[in-house]
Amino acid sequence: MKGDPTMWGDMMAHMESFGWGHMLFGGLMMVLFWGAVIALAVLLVRSLTRDRSEAARQRPTALELLQERYARGEIDREEYEQRRRDLQRH
To answer: For residue 76, which phi and psi values (nearest 5 degrees)?
Structure first.
């Protein structure tokens, strides 16, 4: 079987029957596959970074935190006014 010339001839005839169309289609499919993998990676990175930036924008300001502490009764009016003035200076 190792040196059987008809086996190799049959394989070559089979390969030639596919022609250039199948080779081009296979190449195109490989490009599309890797393009999809890269696109998914880019979308994943963008979604992860977008979540962080949105979370940073939703953080309350120092003045809002101070107002919340005053509303909960953690600080009195005098301390609230003093800290508010300090925050407005900076």
So the answer is: -90, 175
Type of residue found at 79:
E
Report the distance separating Cα 23 and Cα 28, nearest Å.
Answer: 9
* Residue 8 or residue 58, greater confidence: 58
Q: Provide the sign of the torsion angle of the four alpha carbons 38, 44, 48, 49, taken in this order.
A: positive
High-pLDDT (> 70) share of the chain, %: 68
- The owner of tokens 């089979």 is 14
Q: If you average pLDDT over residues 80-90, what whole number do you get? A: 91
Length of the chain: 90
Answer whether 66's CB lies under 8 Å from 80's CB: yes
